[in-house]
Amino acid sequence: MFGFAFSGPGDLATWVSVVFTLIAGASAAIAFVMLRRRERRQALTDLHASLTSGETARARNTIGTLLYSNEAGDQPTRTESIEAYFALIWALQRARNVFRTYSLYWRALDAPQSRLHSIAPSRSSDASLALTWNLTEIAENVVQFHDLYSAKWAIEDEDAWDDIGTYVNAERLGRSTARR
Length: 180
What we know:
Layout: H1 9-52, H2 54-68, H3 78-101, H4 112-118, H5 126-130, H6 132-150, H7 158-164, H8 170-178
């Protein structure tokens, strides 16, 4: 039968168990891949919510008011501004960790247009591209705040600044915000 011979009932049982083991293994592998994709989509959805609401949204508003409002009564306090600055740094760190955990393509954040146009679609997902604008805006605010207030207010942010410097192109963002 098909080029192999059964010498007894034990051989058939062995072949049947091998076939079922292979089917179970393939099913487990498929389930793992599907769950991993679902987990990745959920992580990106949660990250987007984290970047656009709650503490991060309040921090973006505080830093934005400090950097762009001309009304003296609107200005946040120094303490509020520093808290917001670190909240935005932590938001960038969370984003970087999600990208790293799920092996998503990440390049140093820089000016929005160059980032949006230079990422090859095959190296990124629609979800991670959707986060680009938010991440770049946060990075621009962090860089601009750092450049304007870090030394002036004697903020001890060297460790945080060194860390985000590995995935935020501060020099290029500084030039892009100076042009605004």
